[in-house]
Specification:
Helix content is 33%, strand content 20%. By secondary structure, it is an alpha/beta fold. It has a single domain (14-212), classed as TIM Barrel (Alpha-Beta Barrel), CATH 3.20.20. The strands form 2 sheets. It has an 8-stranded parallel barrel with strand order 1-2-3-4-5-6-7-8, surrounded by 6 helices. α1 links the parallel β1 and β2 (36-40). α1 packs parallel to α2 and α1 (23-32) runs parallel beside α8 (200-212). It starts with 13 loop residues before the first strand and ends with a helix. Keywords: Amino-acid biosynthesis, Aromatic amino acid biosynthesis, Isomerase, Tryptophan biosynthesis. Pathway: Amino-acid biosynthesis; L-tryptophan biosynthesis; L-tryptophan from chorismate: step 3/5.
Amino acid sequence: MSDAPSPVPLSPVRVKVCGTTSVRDAVLAAEAGADALGFIFAPVSKRLVTPQVARAAGLSVGPVVARVGVFLGQGLTEVLRTAEAARVSAVQLHGPLAPLYLRAVAAYYPVLRVLRPADLGQEATAEEVNLPGVTPMLDAPDPGSGKPLDWAALRGVFPPGGWLAGGLGPENVAGAIRALNPGGVDAVSRLEAGAGSKDPGKVRAFVRAARER
């Protein structure tokens, strides 16, 4: 009988397909088995959508699939108005933010608070991610670049139950999940045929790989 320790069981992982820009791609992700769609409202993004497009795409998949509005550097009023118009069910926030701002958004929507590896271990970060309704999401320093994080270097500091993004795709998501056991995974660029247009085969392969790891 072997004395080797049993592997730590992996928790169920939620799968988010971000950068959704059309009803077609929303339906594709939902039919592939995605738990959530991401709609980007940050003006700097090449995957920017209007609240009207996001609302139509979200309504096309029904209430079971979460609809996440993604924001960067926008004011509180703009975030809340856009989220309401788009009928999202959660909000993803990038960039430097005050705890008071996070509390205000979290009073209306569950929040995915995006962090970088350099943020981990900081006192301010610990305060943010411990706020009610806020879940951390670790992303690459350059979101949307397709460059994965060094998962081995993050063992021991990755926040329990946190989400993982940054260069994930069908070919590496299973390894990322085994390395860090995140609560959810998020992908954009490696699922595309072109900026803002999803590749059906890559989307299906990504969801399958995340489920079967």
